[in-house]
Design brief:
Strand 1, helix 2 and strand 2 form a beta-alpha-beta unit. Strands 1-2-3 form a three-stranded parallel beta sheet, with helices on one face. The chain is 25% helix and 16% strand. The protein is of the alpha/beta class.
Length: 63
C-alpha cells in the first residue's frame, strides 16, 4: 500500500475519480482508479479514451 492510500484508507479499486480533462483521466488510469469523465465547456471537444463512463453533468450521478 502506498502512503497516499493510507491517507484515505481506500484501495484504488474502491475509488472513482470524476475528471474533466484528458490529463486527469490519464492520471486516474495510471493510478488504477476507475474514472468517470465530466467534460466542461473548454474540454468538451477533446478526445477522452479509456474511461469507465461519460457524464454530461454530475447531476446524472445518484449517490
Amino acid at each position: 500500500m502506498h502512503a497516499s492510500d493510507q491517507k484515505l484508507g481506500a484501495e484504488a479499486d474502491e475509488a472513482i475519480v470524476f475528471e474533466d480533462s484528458p490529463n486527469g483521466l490519464k492520471a486516474a488510469n495510471a493510478a488504477g482508479i476507475r474514472c468517470y469523465i465530466v467534460p466542461n465547456e473548454v474540454t468538451r471537444g477533446l478526445e477522452f479514451t479509456m474511461h469507465e463512463r461519460r457524464l454530461s453533468s454530475l447531476a446524472e450521478m445518484k449517490i
